[in-house]
Write a structure and sequence with these properties.
The protein is mostly helical and about 100 residues long. Helix content is about 85%, strand content about 0%. It has one domain (about 30-104). It comes from Senna tora.
């Protein structure tokens, strides 16, 4: 019975350490995450342009209906393309310098 508080504290400490490791990894890898996101955003933008041209062609053929799934996808793409990662990257690194360079 005396071991119960120790077990609870140990379990809680382990969870906190695991969470801290996850957050530290995120901060250290943030720059690469942003670079990957920017690369994928360019691909998505090209796909968005292609879909927009397909919609334009369909409208020229008097197919004025765009299904709801396509409209939702276009809205999601537009919001992702407008995402400003550069300001987030600057904000993060004002608080924490690049952990990888510090490690080196």
């Amino acid at each position: 019975m005396a071991n119960i508080p120790i077990d609870i504290a140990s379990n809680l400490a382990q969870r906190l350490v695991n969470r801290a490791i996850i957050e530290a990894k995120y901060l250290c890898c943030f720059k690469s995450y942003v670079e990957n996101f920017e690369k994928e955003k360019k691909r998505l933008s090209a796909t968005r342009k292609s879909v927009g041209e397909d919609i334009k062609e369909a409208r020229q053929r008097n197919e004025s209906q765009i299904d709801d799934e396509t409209k939702q996808w276009l809205n999601e793409v537009d919001s992702l393309i407008q995402e400003d990662t550069e300001s987030k990257k600057k904000w993060i690194f004002e608080l924490c310098t690049n952990c990888i360079s510090q490690h080196r």
